[in-house]
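Service request form, structural biology core

Requester: graduate student, group of Dr. S.
Request type: structure prediction, single chain
Budget code: on file
Notes: please return the result as structure tokens.

Sequence provided:
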Amino acid sequence: MRFVYDTLYGVPLTAQFLPAKDLTRGSTIIYLHGGGLILGDKEDLPQTYREQLNNAGHHLLLLDYPLAPEADLTLIHATLAQALDWFLEHYQDDLKLSSPDYYLFGRSAGAYLALLLSHKCPSMHQKGIISFYGFSDLRLPELSEPNAYYQSFPVPKRSLPELSETVLVSACVQSRYPLYIHYRQTGTWLNAFLKQPQLRAQYSLSTDDLAHLPRTFITASTIDKDVPFSASEHLAAHILDATFHPVENQYHDFDRDENNPIAKEVYAHLIDWLILS
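Core staff response, request fulfilled:
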């Protein structure tokens, strides 16, 4: 089931609802996709994991959000705050749920957005955060400096893709990944969605902010070349009720492969963690 939760410059922002069998039980997991805020799609969560979460009794709500650089972080955050409001207003009449309880689940940049929303839009109905290889601080040097891993990629021979004249809410890897590579090669990624460096602190979480977040499930690879593993270690050290499941020697989005036994194990741990809520 799809619902339009808002419209931005004439572009509908949709939420895809994937309910568990029993609408009278379970919480809703509100999902924010990855893609460095530049690319991606709300439906990027592999089907295997969707089914695992549904079969464990949890509903899924997959959200569109506007992408950078056509949208800046202020607009991205405001749009997702509106999505949370929409869920809390419509969970009963439109989604037919009996409870407004929810978790925010993000992968990579989506995990950053989940942490940011949890800080800036606290709710008594939020039961937790799920951070897969995320980060909470835009002031990390690794995010603003040229990235050695991406510098090992060939510089795109073709010109970079033209930006859209309107906002985008999804973009495929083929069309936008060269743009993301360029930003990371040149250390200009933050400028793509936050033009004023002085705003980085405003959109970062302090250690005190982290201490006030709800319970959080964290995972990341020890050799992540995209988002530093230390960012997840930082979350685990400062969120008071944190459960950390690091994985060894895996690539950044190690759960992209539905057949990866390491990823299957992490999702099993996640479901166990959800049961304890």
